[in-house]
Design goal:
alpha/beta; 10 helices; seven-stranded mixed beta sheet
C-alpha cells in the first residue's frame, strides 16, 4: 500500500486515492517522512501541498532543466524539499514565508537527515514580496526556471507579476489552490475573489501560455513565452 496515498487521502474518494497513488511513485522516503510528520504534528496540516501537486512540480523542473526555483509559502518545507530533489546538485531553491515556526519544529529535523538537499534551499523569513523584489534588485531577473505560489491568496497577483519578472523564457509558474474548493466559480470572500482575479488575468495575459487544471485543489499551470 502506498503510505503517501493512505496518509493524505484517508477520507478521500477511491478515485482520488487511486490517482494520488499512481502519481507519487517517485516520492522519496524523506518526502514520505516529512509528509507523515506534517500530517501528524502540524496544527494546520491542510496547508500542505497535495503529493500529486509536488510530483507535478518536480516534473516541470525536470522538463525545463532549471537550476533555480522559487517557493512561495514554506510551511514545513514539503514543497521546497520536492524542488531541491528536482534541481541539480548545483541548483538552489529560494523558499519564502512570514512564519518559520512549523519549519523549525517539523521540517528542519527531517531535512537535517539530508544535508545535501537542505544545502540547496535558501529559507527566507519575511514578506515574499520583499524577498522577490530583493532578488530582482540583485540582478536575478530572468534567471529562474520554476516558481510555486502557495501562500496568502490576497497577494497572488503580486506574486505572479514578480515571479514572471524573475522567470526566464520557458519558465513555469505553478499556482496552487487555484480552484479554492470550487469557490472561484462564485467568489464571495477575499481569498476566492483574489484567486479568481489571478486566474482570469493569467488567462488573458499575452506574455504566457496557461492551463487551469482540476488537480488537488486546482493548479494553474503558466509558462512564460519565449
Amino acid at each position: 500500500t502506498n503510505t503517501v496515498a493512505k496518509s493524505f487521502n484517508n477520507a478521500a474518494t477511491p478515485l482520488i486515492a487511486y490517482t494520488t497513488q499512481l502519481s507519487t511513485t517517485s516520492f522519496t522516503p524523506l518526502q514520505k517522512e516529512l509528509l507523515d510528520e506534517t500530517l501528524s504534528k502540524a496544527r494546520s496540516f491542510r496547508m500542505l501541498g497535495a503529493p500529486e501537486v509536488l510530483e507535478m512540480g518536480k516534473l516541470m523542473i525536470a522538463l525545463n532543466q532549471t537550476k533555480k526555483a522559487l517557493d512561495i509559502g514554506t510551511f514545513t518545507a514539503a514543497s521546497a524539499l520536492a524542488w531541491a530533489i528536482a534541481v541539480p546538485a548545483d541548483g538552489k531553491v529560494v523558499s519564502m514565508d512570514v512564519d518559520h515556526t512549523e519549519l523549525n519544529r517539523i521540517g528542519i529535523p527531517v531535512l537535517n537527515k539530508a544535508p545535501e538537499l537542505k544545502a540547496k534551499i535558501d529559507f527566507r523569513l519575511g514578506s515574499a514580496i520583499d524577498t522577490l523584489k530583493s532578488l530582482i534588485a540583485n540582478g536575478e531577473a530572468g534567471t529562474y526556471g520554476f516558481a510555486f505560489i502557495d501562500a496568502d491568496k490576497v497577494n497572488y497577483c503580486n506574486y505572479y507579476e514578480l515571479c514572471l519578472t524573475l522567470l526566464c523564457p520557458g519558465g513555469v509558474i505553478m499556482v496552487d489552490n487555484a480552484l479554492w474548493s470550487g469557490s472561484v466559480v462564485n467568489p464571495e470572500n477575499e481569498s476566492s475573489i483574489a484567486i479568481d482575479k489571478l486566474n482570469r488575468f493569467a488567462a488573458a495575459d499575452d506574455r504566457v501560455h496557461n492551463t487551469l487544471l482540476n488537480v488537488g485543489d486546482g493548479i494553474h499551470l503558466i509558462v512564460k513565452k519565449h
